[in-house]
Amino acid sequence: MRDNTSASARRLALVAGVTAALVAFLFGRVAIAETIVIDDSDSLMVFDSILDGFPNLAAFDGVPDFGGNALAVSLQTGVTEERAVIEFPLHALVGHTQSEITGATLTINVDDVLTTFGPGTTFDATAAERMFVYIYAGNGEIELDDYLNVTTSPYATIDTTSHGVVTDSSLGGTGPLAFDVNVTSAIRDALSQGTDFLGLVLTTDDDLSGTSIDNLGSGSTGPPGINGAAMPFLIVEVSEASTTTTTATGTTTSTSTTTTLSSAGLCGDANDDGDVTATDALTVLRAAVSLNTCPMSRCDVDSNGALTAGDALRVLRHATGQVVDLACQPS
């Protein structure tokens, strides 16, 4: 389905949402007792892109036809439209009240630009200038009819024009671009209504645009030579930590995390001070966008051979008491 003025400050766009949460945590912008990251490391998070219309297969008629696609938002009026659908599990927030939610940020990254789905489909090789975010109460499954959960006004609009015209060429210079949406009120509403999954639908009205928002760029690392593309994720700031630990089924349980100790030190302890904290997550994050260095033996916490925003997210989740194992390879 997919064809395949970069200053340091622009590279930070990739992880803007993570950076904001870390700065708030470290420097007391708000009194955060807990920072909860909800991302695709949670097996309950589900996502798909659903198409209406495809040449010689289905009419473009407002009725969803096909799922099972990489996460993207595209439009060729009269021919096909692709909407991205995501459902974030909220079980990590069980035990918290809406008043305890001090902030919540959705981060979407643009990692690739589409030019065609195949014969009869053509896009103009640019990302959408704007994407509309709709919110709905999910059920933990992506169904074709979720394409239609756009009957209300958009919850938010993502404007990409601050980066000019986004193309594969520009992404090769900037790296994947991250865009943040404040979803605090949506998370509070979900908690007050007892919603188990926060559902989102992303659409565009920018005709002939094709915008990938997953982590499957060239070589599964973003545009050529650029690491760090990430699936959409949520960062939720909570003012009071709950004393109840829950699993996906809501059962109280005891949990533990594992941190390996290599010959080079504690895995995740980026500054080598003997402890894994949010400061280490920020150090890993900066290393992921080449703003500083960080030993792989302490910072490549998923042992995949590359430093990415995903490593920083894992360190942050571990540092804030969430159940995530850190495993580094010895140097």
Pick out its properties:
single chain, 331 residues, alpha+beta, Type 1 dockerin domain, nine-stranded antiparallel sheet, four-stranded antiparallel sheet, 7 helices, globular, disordered N terminus
Could you characterize the architecture of this molecule?
The two termini are 39 Å apart. Strands 2, 3, 4, 5, 7, 8, 9, 11 and 12 form a 9-stranded antiparallel beta sheet that branches. The protein has a 4-stranded antiparallel beta sheet with strand order 1-13-6-10, sandwiched between helices. The longest helix is centred in the first third of the chain and has 12 residues, at 16-27. α5 runs antiparallel to α7 (309-319). The protein folds into 2 domains: 8-238, no CATH class; 261-319, Orthogonal Bundle (Type 1 dockerin domain), CATH 1.10.1330.10. The protein is 18% helix and 25% strand. It has 7 helices and 15 strands. The model is unreliable at 1-15, 25-32, 219-226 and 241-256 (pLDDT under 50). It is of the alpha+beta class and 331 residues long.
